[in-house]
Every structure is written in structure tokens, then in C-alpha cells.
Design brief:
The complex is a heterodimer. Chain A is mainly alpha-helical. Chain A has a domain at 1-121 and 275-301. In chain A, 73% of the residues lie in helices and 5% in strands. Chain A has helices at residues 2-25, 33-60, 67-79, 89-130, 164-169, 172-187, 190-203, 208-232, 235-247, 255-269, 277-299, and strands at 132-133, 140-143, 149-153, 159-163. In chain A, helix 1 packs antiparallel against helix 2 (33-60), helix 2 (33-60) packs antiparallel against helix 4 (89-130) and helix 2 (33-60) runs antiparallel to helix 8. The radius of gyration of chain A is 24 Å and the shape is elongated. By secondary structure, chain B is of the alpha+beta class. Chain B folds into two domains: 7-70, Winged helix-like DNA-binding domain superfamily/Winged helix DNA-binding domain (Arc Repressor Mutant, subunit A, Orthogonal Bundle); 74-115, no CATH class. Chain B contains five helices and four strands, in the order H-E-H-H-E-E-H-E-H. Chain B has helices at 7-20, 27-33, 41-53, 74-90, 105-115, and strands spanning 25-26, 57-62, 65-70, 98-99. Chain B has a three-stranded antiparallel beta sheet with strand order 1-3-2. The model of chain B is unreliable at 90-103 (pLDDT under 50). Classes of the chains: A mainly alpha, B alpha+beta. The A-B interface holds A 116, 119, 123, 125-130, 132, 143-145, 147-152, 154, 161, 163, 165-166, 182, 185, 190-191, 194, 197-198, 201, 211, 214-215, 217-219, 221-222, 242, 245-246, 248-250, 252-254, 256-257, 260 and B 8, 11-12, 15, 51, 54, 56, 74, 77-82, 84-86, 88-89, 92-103, 108, 111-112, 114-115.
């Protein structure tokens, strides 16, 4: 099982670092954000399974030839009150590290979720008292502030918000276009799409690949929301609205951010050619393999 | 202008009364300010209770009377919402707020580092 552990460890590291960086830098995801987001989920999940599995497999390798049999042998032995002598500190250490990382990841996920839910409830309470309904679109509220901001508050009781600054900058059609984009975030629960990557980033912020993954996923959900909005309203209307609201930001605004916005706007008016069907299926297969292969290595042997 | 108004709408109306009045108010005084809505005192008390639970108003006991006071000004709360929305947007995509507006220097440099 040491070989399995080595293989899984290499796969996990490869996914967390070079693969994440390469995928974050690649250009094709912009041609099909949905397929790319699927691949990202597989990279995150497969990477997690591989790294955790590697520690588990190495730690339990003295106990048997496969993870299920080794786990059973270890459990039986411990249940009988006998510590298996083959379980030396090195293997026990590997086991503890694997479990520690898993517990850390899960607790970060739980804490992040709880904190987010609490902050959202507070934000919603304030919004309901402060923001006034916007008559031109149902479920939209206006916050009286001159800085142009449009955003959505996800959750079961979601809210769409535009600031007065947005209404000053855009005409009704423009605001509707921006809202179509926000509504896509809400309907497709993009907050849940980013959640695993936020947890990974918070668990291991020192791994640059994780940070790249977070940024890439955030960029992709914006593109996806643009794609949805473009089908619901006039693309040039959407592009103009984004440009005008974005353009009212101070000139000092971060250049790479405005670059990213510019690239997004170009993408709306001149969408890139969609990925060939074969490539789309290939990516889906790779995504499936990234999750199935490490699981199979661990469980079937 | 009564009957079908939602609780959320009433909460907004009561907060507006408290914000526009420069002193602590009793439920009765709030009710009087909203006389055109024809609200029952219990309704006003319910709304004030909800606002207190949401930490939007303080209840101050003064002898046998209870006075209510906004926890913060409307402007402070709007600023809180705006900074929430902007923070989330710069928080490595943790939330979905997009900021089309201003960023602080610190946020900007953090984002620049990340995108570097």
C-alpha cells in the first residue's frame, strides 16, 4: 500500500499546485465556464481525497494490503485492546496528520458557513429596514449610497441590491441588465460553488495554487453569470452597463481589476467560440476520473 | 394604509420614526407618529421587540415606561452594509458582491498581490 500512498500523494500535490496554477492560467475555461467549474470542483475534491487518502494509506500500510482490510485489521486489534506492534510512530504520525488535516478542513468549512450565515442574516435585517423596493424589478432593493454597487445576498431568503449610485449612473434597461447578472448568481447558487474553495484557501492559505483556484473560480462564476444575463437581455446593453458602472470607479482603481473587467466586457459583446463537443466531453471525463481514480485506488485493490 | 402591510414594511416605518426623532421614544409615541396607519399598541410593541432582537434598537427602562432608541444612525448602518458588500467582493471571491465602486488602498494592494 506504500505505492498507493505514494501515487495518491503525488496526484494530490500535482492537483493542489501545478495543475491548479495551469488551470487558473488557461484561456479555454472562458469558452465554457460551466464545464470549467465542473473541472475545478473535481480538482478540489480529487486533490482532497488524494492527499487525505495518501496519509491514510501510508499510515495503515503495515496492517494490510488494501485500505479496507488494513482498517478492519487495525480496528479489530485495537478493539481487543492490543496495539499492533507494526504501527510505529512514523505510521501513526502519518495517520494523525491525515486525520488532522481532514478535521481542520471540515471545521473550517463549518465555521466559514456559520459565520457567513450569521453575517448574511445581519445584512438582510439591515437591508430590510434601510433599503427601499425598486419599482421596476420585483425583489430588488435600493440602498441610498452614492458609490455604485450592485450585489446579491444569497441564501434561502435572498436579496438583490443596487445602490443609488447605480441608479444615477444607469438607465432602467442598464439596471435590469446588471440585475439579470446578479439573479444568475442567486439562481445557480454560485455561493455554494465557491464555498469549497474558500474552505481550502482558509485551510492552506500558504499554498499558492489554492489562492489561484479561488480567484479562477470567482472569475468563472462572473463569466457564467454574464453568459446567462446575455441571453436574457441585449448583450450590448449589459456590456455598456458594466462598463459605465465600472468606469465610474476612481481612475486609481487596480489596473488588473479593470483589465479583468475589460476582458469580461469584450467577452460579452464578442463571445468566444464554444468548446467543441468532443473537448467538452473530454473535460467531463477528466473531471470524473480525478475523483474516481483516487477513490478506486483507495477502496479497490 | 393598514391591514395588509408586511412586518418588514412596519419595521422600516418604525425605524424611520426613531431615526427622524432626536430623542428616545415610548411605543405610544411611535404609535402616535404612525397614526395614519391605525396600528394597535401591541403591533407597535411586537415590531419594536423584533427590532430589539435584531439589535437595531435599544430598550431603556425608565421607571415603568420603556423607551426605545436606535442603536446607530441610518448613515452608520448604510456604511456598514456598503463596507460589507465591498469587503466581500475583495475577499478572494468569498462572496458574490461585485464592486464596481471604490476600494481602500489596503484592499487594492491585497488584491494586486493575489493577482500578481
Amino acid at each position: 500500500m506504500e505505492l498507493t500512498a505514494l501515487g495518491l500523494g503525488l496526484l494530490g500535490v500535482a492537483l493542489a499546485e501545478p495543475a491548479s496554477r495551469m488551470l487558473a492560467a488557461a484561456r479555454w475555461p472562458g469558452r465554457d465556464p460551466v464545464v470549467a467549474l465542473l473541472l475545478w470542483q473535481a480538482v478540489g475534491l480529487g486533490g482532497g481525497i488524494s492527499l487525505f487518502g495518501a496519509g491514510l494509506a501510508y499510515g495503515l500500510s503495515p496492517m494490510g494490503d488494501s485500505l479496507p482490510s488494513a482498517t478492519a485489521a487495525f480496528a479489530v486489534s485495537v478493539a481487543n485492546g492490543v496495539w499492533p506492534p507494526v504501527m510505529d510512530p512514523l505510521h501513526v504520525g502519518a495517520l494523525l496528520i491525515a486525520l488532522g488535516v481532514l478535521i481542520r478542513l471540515l471545521s473550517v468549512l463549518v465555521i466559514t458557513t456559520m459565520r457567513t450565515l450569521r453575517a448574511r442574516r445581519r445584512h438582510r435585517d439591515l437591508l430590510d429596514v434601510l433599503a427601499t423596493p425598486w419599482p421596476h424589478a420585483s425583489g430588488t432593493r435600493v440602498l441610498d449610497h452614492p458609490v455604485p454597487v450592485a450585489y446579491c445576498l444569497p441564501g434561502r431568503s435572498s436579496r438583490l441590491v443596487v445602490s443609488a449610485g447605480v441608479l444615477d449612473t444607469l438607465d432602467t434597461a442598464g439596471v435590469v441588465a446588471v440585475l439579470a447578472h446578479e439573479r444568475a448568481h442567486l439562481r445557480e447558487r454560485h455561493d455554494l460553488v465557491v464555498l469549497p474553495f474558500v474552505a481550502w484557501g482558509a485551510t492552506a492559505p500558504f499554498v499558492r495554487g489554492m489562492v489561484c483556484a479561488q480567484l479562477a473560480v470567482a472569475r468563472l462564476i462572473e463569466m457564467r453569470a454574464d453568459d446567462v444575463a446575455r441571453k436574457l437581455c441585449d448583450p450590448t446593453e449589459l456590456a455598456t452597463a458594466l462598463k459605465e458602472v465600472g468606469g465610474s470607479a476612481p481612475a486609481a482603481a487596480l489596473s488588473s481589476f479593470t483589465d479583468a473587467l475589460e476582458a469580461r466586457i469584450d467577452r460579452i459583446t464578442a463571445p468566444p467560440a464554444p468548446l467543441p463537443v468532443v473537448v467538452r466531453w473530454l473535460v467531463r471525463l477528466v473531471a470524473l476520473a480525478l475523483v474516481v481514480v483516487p477513490l478506486a485506488l483507495l477502496l479497490v485493490h | 394604509m393598514s391591514g395588509v402591510t408586511s412586518l418588514g414594511e412596519l419595521e422600516r416605518a418604525v425605524m424611520n420614526v426613531l431615526w427622524e426623532t432626536d430623542r428616545d421614544m415610548t411605543a405610544r409615541e411611535v404609535q402616535d407618529q404612525l397614526a395614519d396607519r391605525d396600528l394597535a399598541t401591541t403591533t407597535v410593541l411586537t415590531v419594536l421587540g423584533r427590532l430589539e432582537r435584531k439589535q437595531l434598537v435599544h430598550r431603556i427602562r425608565d421607571g415603568r415606561a420603556h423607551h426605545y432608541r436606535p442603536v446607530a444612525s441610518r448613515e452608520d448602518h448604510v456604511a456598514e452594509l456598503m463596507s460589507d458588500a465591498l469587503d466581500d467582493a475583495s475577499d478572494r471571491g468569498a462572496a458574490l458582491a461585485r464592486f464596481l465602486g471604490t476600494m481602500s488602498d489596503e484592499e487594492r494592494s491585497r488584491l494586486r498581490d493575489l493577482l500578481g
